[in-house]
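Reading group handout, session on sequence-to-structure problems. Before we discuss, look at one worked example. The prompt was deliberately terse, the way you'd type it at a terminal:

> structure VOC domain-containing protein

The input record follows.
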Amino acid sequence: MSATPQITPFHLAFPVDDLAAARHFYGEVLGCPEGRSSAQWIDFDLFGHQIVTHLRPRAAAIVHHNPVDGHDVPIPHFGVVLTMEQWQSLADRLQAANTAFVIEPYIRFKGEVGEQATMFFLDPAGNALEFKAFADMSLIFAK
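And the output record:
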């Protein structure tokens, strides 16, 4: 029997149009510790993963959505799969900060394989984020 593979941190760099707003949102609202930074970018620790906000003037947004479980899911988006306890704590934190959700926290695919807690919201630059959790982490890739 092989050992369970250790998941290594991913790195994601993405554009923002205001570094101060990104610093507040990712650092204060989401609670991500800040790493290195410059006048053009900021590193954050997102649940052990390295995300980097890079300053870019606002570009015309191309909005796209795909239907999933009766909701319009924004594309592209990124986030982290959390434990149920972490997910609930983050949902509570975001609600206390009066976050405007694209999709309010709820249980998706209820009673089906792949049942999961999920929520979608935007950062100040309009980047879509999804955070989700599974009651049974072994079902993340279940069909």
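Points for discussion. First: The first helix runs from residue 19 to 29. Second: The mean pLDDT is 91.
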